[in-house]
Specification:
The chain is mainly α. Helix content is 68%, strand content 2%. The chain is built from 8 helices and 2 strands, in the order ααααββαααα. It has a two-stranded antiparallel sheet with strand order 1-2.
Length: 194
Amino acid sequence: MILYSDKAILQGLKKKQERYIRYLYKEFSPMINNFVIHNSGTYEDAEDVFQDALVLLYKRICTGNVCLNCSLKTYFYAICRNIWMKRLSRKQKILYQDHMEVHEDPTGYSTGEYEFREDNLEMVRLFHRHFLLIPEDCQKVLMLFLEKVPLKTIAGVMGFKSVGYAKARKYMCKNMLRKRILKDPSCKIFLNDD
């Protein structure tokens, strides 16, 4: 197998050369998988972290914000570690909030046909748990969409070049969230086969 220097990899990534991306996956992903899985994550979590770190590395390369004081492998590992630790921190906050007791009048919640019952609260928790695990840009796009912000405005806020791309990005983010929720074993109790 060919070994590339850190400088060659950075230059290759900047030019979007596929062989360098494949090289990073082959050389770095086992280390990242091992780290995430041994720190309360899954293989899917590790893949998400790796991809997010790769995007972040690419953005830093393009803006000239990469200053290597160590090997690229160590630098990339640090990026992945930071991403995963932030996600774990958010997970812990969600878990803590899920167990808080709230004493309120149970008859006071009704928004038209939708009533807040215990099973609905579980559905909301499931949604929030997975929403906070998707990339932050996806969270922002979906929040803007849920607030009924026009796609043209979303494109401007997010720095997208066109309304078409904003629409495609919204669709991709929504699909990512939907797939995460459907993979969750606790989702099965909300799905009726009737």
